[in-house]
Amino acid sequence: MILVLAGYRPAGKDMTMPKLIRLYIRNVLIGFGISAIFVAALIAFDVAGLRHLMLGSSAGWMAIAMMWFANGIVFAGVQFGLAVMALRERDDTPRGGTRAPVATRIPAPVRATSAAAPRARR
Hints:
mainly alpha; 4 helices
């Protein structure tokens, strides 16, 4: 690990990170950044008295860290899910039918048969 960080590369081996791993790391960092902004907004706007509770306690920093971490997991998961769903291949073929109007007032002849015995007419 230290050799890789120092720039050592074994001969014949490609040491680049796979694209999916890079996508995951980037979106996790974005998710935790959004979490930091969210927790800062909660504290700044004193939602439900959280600022008073966190800053008035000696263990308030732990509550802030736990809120940041828990929300970071959620936001990172959502961010990565959105990124993966956006990876789909674009289909350029036309979808659906044409928008030509369909004539609906023209009667269509239909033959109706009944399995029941015919009734007598009066």
